[in-house]
């Protein structure tokens, strides 16, 4: 294989790349998000400098069903997201992620620095209840529930009441930030960056809110309970189409 051919590849292994080049389009991407109040000291500990807590003491537990993901397949993902600040700019920091499909694990870690590990999340409806269930190495580590399509959600963006899909657009288009750490061949860090991105081409197909419950269980290798659930702030459930573009470096720890 010639050098030019090597440099055209999207990813490893060279014989069968794990994922193609982006951007990546998601159809009928379904989110279930439970917001909760957590311990401010635990939040501060979980945020890498120079990110700072936004003062809300809020954390979000997410389960996302992705049945139609260009280049990545059909999979489900779950994780912990912390609202924060980068300077004066509000961002969401993705602190932990667990999913059941290898191409988005490889691509997510290598391109954007998503903190992805192999797990077994599920999003399901039984009777009148929407349930997000997360299992890691055969052990349940999180259970989230909400009334299924309990309250049709079309918020007024400015007043937080009703009635416009721009509330979901505003939520999705907020800057997302990951801590990307890639080792060099000697074990030292070759890459240590904060990577930011914003999703694009968003279409909101449906959105609902309702009272929600969340249980987090301690696990040595999947520490979701290190950000304890002190008080549920409710849940949202929405379905969208969107595009995940490439990101950008907003802070490089290896450069002065």
From TrEMBL:
Top-rank taxon, per record: Bacteria
Organism this protein belongs to: Pseudovibrio denitrificans
InterPro entries: Acetoacetate_decarboxylase, ADC_dom_sf
Listed transmembrane segments: none
GO-annotated molecular function: lyase activity
NCBIfam families for the chain: PRK02265.1
Gene3D superfamilies: Acetoacetate decarboxylase-like (2.40.400.10)
Protein name (database record): Acetoacetate decarboxylase
């Amino acid at each position: 294989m010639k050098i030019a051919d090597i440099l055209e590849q999207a990813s490893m292994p060279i014989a069968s790349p794990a994922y193609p080049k982006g951007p990546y389009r998601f159809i009928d991407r379904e989110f279930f998000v439970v917001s909760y109040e957590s311990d401010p000291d635990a939040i501060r500990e979980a945020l890498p400098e120079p990110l700072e807590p936004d003062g809300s003491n809020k954390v979000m537990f997410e389960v996302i069903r992705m049945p139609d993901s260009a280049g990545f397949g059909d999979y489900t993902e779950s994780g912990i997201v912390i609202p924060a600040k980068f300077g004066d700019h509000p961002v969401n920091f993705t602190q932990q992620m667990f999913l059941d499909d290898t191409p988005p694990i490889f691509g997510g870690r290598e391109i954007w620095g998503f903190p992805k590990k192999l797990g077994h999340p599920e999003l399901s409806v039984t009777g009148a209840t929407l349930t997000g269930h997360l299992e890691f190495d055969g052990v349940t580590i999180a259970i989230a529930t909400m009334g299924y399509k309990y309250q049709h959600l079309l918020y007024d963006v400015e007043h937080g009441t009703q009635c416009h899909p721009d509330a979901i657009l505003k939520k999705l288009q907020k800057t997302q930030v990951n801590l990307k750490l890639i080792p060099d061949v000697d074990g030292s860090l070759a890459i240590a960056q904060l990577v930011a991105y914003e999703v694009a081409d968003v279409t909101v197909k449906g959105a609902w809110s309702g009272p929600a419950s969340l249980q987090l269980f301690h696990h040595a290798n999947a520490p979701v309970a290190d950000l304890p659930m002190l008080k549920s702030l409710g849940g949202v459930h929405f379905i969208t189409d969107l595009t995940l573009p490439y990101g950008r470096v907003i802070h490089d720890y290896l450069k002065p």
